């Protein structure tokens, strides 16, 4: 699935922080790595001030409920930065395929990503359980 085909909204703060994270990743950790999926999101998203973030959009540290389109299985994940990632506990990095697949999408959107094994996964965002900006946190 082409990440460019999906409408994405990022807050200014999330955009700047993730862009800096990607730049640091490229410069220090893996300069010759293939393009990350999150880079396509950063290049094509709409950017809004944090205080204007729609309450139904996945921002950093948003917790969402997902429904796998194929199996119907439900799951909950929270989008975070790599240092806070703990996939077995539901904390997924924004640099991971699922993180890039979710960032900036709205409630009811269908997220697409590839697992590390190369399998395509498709899930619907069925609920926004928590979004920092909706609770008045504009700096997380």
Summary keywords:
single chain, 140 residues, Chitinase A, domain 3, globular, Tscrpt_elong_fac_GreA/B_fam, DNA binding, elongation factor
Structure in words:
With 140 residues, the chain is of the alpha/beta class. The protein has one domain: Chitinase A, domain 3 (Roll). The protein has helices spanning 12-29, 37-44, 97-102, and strands at 9-11, 46-48, 63-68, 74-80, 91-93, 110-114, 120-130. A hairpin with a 5-residue loop joins strand 3 and strand 4. It is globular and about 40 Å long. The termini are far apart. InterPro entries: GreA/GreB_C_sf (IPR036953), Tscrpt_elong_fac_GreA/B_C (IPR001437), Tscrpt_elong_fac_GreA/B_fam (IPR023459). One of its GO terms (biological process) is DNA-templated transcription elongation.
Quickly describe the structure.
With 140 residues, the protein is of the alpha/beta class.
Structural class: alpha/beta
| Multimeric state | single chain
Cα distance, first to last residue? 30 Å
Q: Give a short account of the largest sheet.
A: 5 strands, mixed
Write the topology of this structure.
Elements: E1 9-11, H1 12-29, H2 37-44, E2 46-48, E3 63-68, E4 74-80, E5 91-93, H3 97-102, E6 110-114, E7 120-130
Parallel strand pairs: 1-2, 4-5
Antiparallel strand pairs: 3-4, 3-7, 6-7
């Amino acid at each position: 699935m082409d990440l460019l085909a999906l409408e994405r909204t990022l807050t200014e703060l999330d955009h700047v922080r993730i862009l800096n994270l990607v730049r640091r990743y490229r410069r220090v950790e893996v300069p010759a790595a293939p393009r990350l999926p999150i880079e396509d999101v950063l290049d094509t998203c709409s950017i809004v001030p944090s205080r204007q973030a729609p309450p139904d959009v996945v921002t950093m540290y948003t917790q969402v409920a997902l429904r796998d389109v194929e199996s119907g299985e439900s799951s909950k994940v929270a989008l975070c930065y790599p240092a806070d990632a703990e996939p077995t506990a539901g904390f997924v990095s924004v640099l991971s395929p699922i993180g890039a697949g979710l960032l900036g999408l709205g409630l009811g959107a269908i997220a697409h990503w590839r697992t590390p094994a190369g399998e395509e996964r498709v899930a619907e965002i069925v609920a926004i359980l928590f979004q920092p900006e909706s609770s008045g946190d504009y700096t997380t």
